Amino acid sequence: MTSSELYHTKQQFILGAYQSVINLALPDPSSSDYIPTLLYQARSHIALHNPKAAIDIIPEDNANVALKAVVALARYIDAAGSSETDNLLEEMRDLSVEIEGDDAESTESDKAYVRVLAGTAFACAGEVEEALETLGADTEDLEAVAVIVQIYLSINRPDLAKKEYERSKRWAEDDLLLQLIESNIGLITGKDGYSNTNSFYTEQLGNPSLTSPHILTARGVTRILRNEIPEAKSDLEESLQQQKNDAETLAAYVVATGLGPAKKDESEESWTRLLNEHSTHPLVVEVSGKADLFDEAASKFVVPPVATVA
Amino acid sequence: MSVMLTKFESKSNRVKGLAFHPTQPLLAAALHNGSVQLWNYRMGVLVDRFEEHEGPVRAVHFHPSRALLVTGGDDYKIKVWDIRPQTRRCLFTLHGHLDYVRTVQFHHEMPWIISTSDDQTIRIWNSTSRNCIAVLTGHSHYVMSGFFHPKDDLVVSASMDQTVRVWDISGLRKGSPNTGPGNFETFDTFSTVKYVLEGHDRGVNYAAFHPTLPLIVSAADDRTIKIWRMSETKAWEVDSCRGHFNNVSSALFHPKHELIVSCGEDKTIRVWDLAKRTAIQTFRREQDRFWVLAAHPNLNLFAAGHDSGLIVFKLERERPAFAVHQDTLFYVRDKYVRSYDINSASDIGLLSVRKFGSPYMPPRTLSYNPAERAVLVTVSSDNGLYELTSLPQGSQGGEVKDSSVDGKKGTGHSAIFVARNRFAILNKASQLIEVRDLSNSVVKSIKPPVQTNEIFYGGTACLILSSTSSVVLYDIQQQKTIADINSPPVKYVVWNSDGSLVALMSKHTITIANRTFSEHSLIHETIRIKSGAWDDAGVFLYSTLNHVKYGLSQGDHGVICTLDNPVYLTRVKGKTIHCLDRSARPRTITFDPTEYRFKLALLKNNYEEMLYIIKTSTLLGQSIIAYLQQKGFPEIALHFVQDTNTRFELALECGNMDVAVETAEAIDRTDCWERLAQQALKQGNHKIVEKAYQRTKNFDKLSFLYLATGSTEKLSKMQKIADARGDPMSRFHNSLYAGDVKGRIAVLRDVGMYPLAYLTAKTHGFDDIAEEILEDASLTPADVDDVPSFAQATSVKPPQVVTSTADLVWPTISAGENFFDRALANGSLEGGVEPSYVNGDAAAAGSAMSALDDWAKDEETHEDIDPEEGGWDLGAEEEEFQDAEVEEEQPEEELGAGATPGPDERELWVRNSPLAADHVAAGSFESAMQLLNRQLGIVNFEPLKALFLSIYRSSHTYLSPVASLPPLHLHIRRNPTESSPSKVLPVAVIPLKQVRATLSEGYRALSSNKLSDAQEIFRSVLKTLLLVVLTSDDEARQWRETVTAAREYLLGVNIELERRQVAEVEPDNVRRSLELAAYFTHCQLQPPHMIIALRSAMAVFHKANNQAGAARFAKRLLETKPDSKVVAVARQRIAAGERNPRDAIEITYDEYTPFDICAASYTPIYRGSPSVHCPYTDASYLPQFKGKLDPLINLTEIGAVASGLPAPW
Predict the structure, then answer these.
(1) Looking at the predicted structure, is the pLDDT value of residue B661 above 90?
(2) Where does the COPA/B TPR domain start and stop, copy by copy (chain B) (predicted)?
(3) What are the start-end ranges of the E strands in B127-278?
């Protein structure tokens, strides 16, 4: 049974309230909560695309495998796009091998953290098979399940994701994370008009013990999917007020304004902002890729001269 | 019916008789000690006592409609009382019985009283003439009870002779048989025994008719209750109810349900099922034997008298089970779950719960789940049961669904939904809370941290636990207490609409808390609290037994209205309270929320709202003024007060000097001015002080004030005034203040104080004056030799004025400049704009007209312009990729590594749609282009690039629900309810409606002569239309109309632009200019635009002196029915054309042969001549342009073969 502070930290982390997690005071280093809390803070930094801060908060002389893994992940994310990634992935592999041995020093929960972190890194690198292998097909760690399910979803296998979810339902009681997983599956399958996801996020917005703009964004995106564009816009606007520069929210806002009856300028304006400030966001990357594709495809047609009176 | 709900209890001497007042909450109790008590059982107070009987009183009854009470006692007397407090007295006494009087009763419509007595007779009395009008004889022992039938002319009596008798008294109605007392023989002829019911083995204590059915119930010393049925001709015993183990004192039919209630000397009250004659319930008392029962005629209320007092009780809870979701109320009436729409007042039965729980007990609570449209009903029989059932969608005709069909049951004391797919069950005995999913399987068990009697919804993932002395907010996920508040047992919990505040209601207290329980306030009521609901503005309205009240979040509360009978508030909307009455029928109460709205606004410092209320409502009176003053807002109270004295007081209190002066002038009393002066002095406002001193003629203070303010000028005036008043002391003061030595000497001289005057003059060096003084005093300088010579006085002078403050007042903080002063002072009483009050009663915002100008409105009316008849092939062409559908039935796969990727949603979209727009949304640009090329002959795609990209951009979104993983790529579907992979389609990014709106914009640009803008808009419309998603034939038709309209307008605009260019570049080429003007009028435009084209053509022709042509355009113009000014011009042109029917310049224009206009050369293509067409817009071109790029939109190849749009729907 985790302590209530740690539970709270975990809950905030799961629901994407990363900034709140970072703002938490660290417990005493001798406390059993110390390492998990530190881990969540480091992971929050990484999630907020600030891997350097994650590296900074981890003491250099740590011997804990989980902490090592989080540093490795931070460095991997930091090095994204450079040649060093392969070496860092190798480091991750070493760590995952290390925990498989009969190492008395690391606890079960540390091992679980390592698997989740390594799985995340492999998934980021597109090594789906390796990620799934690392996370384990029979894991009883919900965080691992969350990653597995998202991997399945990203390769368009909601059927496998659902199977994984059904499997974990048997042992995971009614955990919040399990509900999130269910909601994630709903996002992809769109079962019952996304009602499950929508009510999950609506409920979490009413949760008294935390507030996170991420949830607002998530509901906004869900509402876009439900074709409730004005409502989605209001959610996203509210979220943008709380976190001015969140790429995901901004990207969703671009979509919402593009779909609504709003003026096109509004959409273009946020699009320009997204282009300038978050040039690596998948939406930007995708669209610019499509622009090239367009030119290529258009060039296959022969354009005759315009008909004019000679 | 597991509990008898005691409403009221009193201790007294033995109670032998009881009667309910039919309309008021009054109960009369006849006591063994000779007293008759009148209780208000709702408030629990003894209202009155009637003590004229000697010895025990057994009989008592209220008049059904008048304020009368009849009693009968062991003193053989029957007394009739006026019970109105102001005239309460014994009206008269009926003498005649020769032994104890056992029961009395008023007739329901005749002025009759029936009484029974131990003298073995039943007597009927006329209460108007106060005579005995009938004596019913026949019983051979004490007659223990006798009652009129509720409708028929029958009487039922019970006697110690072991019989129950039914008497026919119809004879009494015919005429008035009895004229005087004494002639007993005549009585019997009018009333005869109809039936004698034998069957009891002992004396019968009580017999009563059923209120509606031909049934009689009797209670006897043989410990049984017997039910008898009667017909027109006979009566017989139906059955007995056995169970009492001592004499049964009384038995009654339940007025509403098929039940019998009885009581007896075995110290029990028992409830029996009338149909089955089985005991349902027994309530036992330790000490007291029960002697009498009474039922309220209309309400579910009973009273029983026993050895040491009486109790008033209910057999079932009246509070209907209900839940409110938005504007719909779900409630249970007569064991049916019903829904009531508070807007439309439609009230429909949805679900029967008849088979759920005990048949005698209505459901206790109902919890509604909007996500699943399910209800969770609990009942308290069998130690608590719950049932989860989904409501049918809508109301289907005929049979209402029964919950037993698919309901999921279980045991539990409370059951509530805690999330869309979870509900919580409290098992009170084992103190276990189970969280179950919708299939009724337990997903979680919780041991509550306190002894829990009731659970309520506590916000997301939380429960509210009610225990005996506290209420706990409990987190289900974390299994820990978040907060607790000390409170008496909480019975009901009501959340406000946004879930930020919760009202926790106990019997006598309401705790209003925020959602984390971190702040709360308490309202205490002495009267039982029944129910409550939140106003949308955050005010809690609640009902007690006799009031509807409001409570503000900080604890203030007040009465809204008084109630005759309790109601259960369900929803408050604007000025209407929606509630359920005791029989669970929806009702509304209209009330005036002004007072609490005002207080709320005050609390929130919402001055606009307050001002609005002040201006628009009659919110006045001492209470609100006192409230404002008490809450520290005297300045606001000021605005309510007319009375000058109060205004003055308030103005002083809040330091509003302007009002204070104004009111002081009106009052004009010395003490007011003095107090004003004091207050003004404190504020440093010396002008007001001056005024006050002047008014009170307080010269001394005035002078000193002038000294203090350095107002020398006024000081000298004061001197003159003092002179005039002849007050030497004042003159002296003033001259001293003013530093006027001579003046001072003069005063001293005038009053004869020569020594002082002399010395003053001397020491100030006024020797000559000193001489004069000596003279005046008839002295010589020698006489004053002995006066020592003083040093030259340094003149006592007033201090120098450094900065003149005479005209300045001490600066004050602009306290007076508050919102109200400004608003009320400038008299903008009508100007107040009603603040948007969220409660929905604000006069609904004026219907926001769409911002279309008149022009656009014209468009609306002419929207249905000629449907294109040119048989454009919209027929579905079999697209080859449509049947290339490969069903991906993946073989069963193990979870884990090695999972192969599935089909991307985008692939599905491409597979599922033959529309270019869908392919663009899916990012399959190449196939989209092929489609456009094949369907509409598009060859030049460059102008569509931005459109393609923005559609693609708007069809996909991203979300990262799990930290640091690449975000999930989400694809926005057209129909969110469709999730089958073979049917999913991308969202329709550009709706047809939007394009049509753009088209209207183009019309507007055209009519305001912004031709190049219009050209741009029409072009973009035609481009956008290529990528509009069509879903029905109707839409396809509209689409085609829009394409045609846009084409015609674009062509027209192009022609007109060309004409203007010709006019500018080659001014001599009048002929071409005329031609183009004429062609313009042949584009298919809507009437308003056609008028523009015709007027332009008319003008151009007129100018070129082509009068005949101008006249023809004028005639066509007249056909369009333009406005009168245009008509006048047109007529002139026609007249000119008739005078001079010639054209100066010959042009190529044959208006009598139909023609199309070549969109490239702007020349006519007369019918029958060869032409080629644009495959998309169907614009006509001369054959020479075949194979070229169309000049209208630069997209298509002129004359290319195209298949037209497919119809996939």
Answers:
(1) no
(2) 622-770
(3) 131-137, 143-148, 154-159, 163-168, 192-198, 204-209, 215-220, 224-230, 235-242, 248-253, 259-264, 268-273
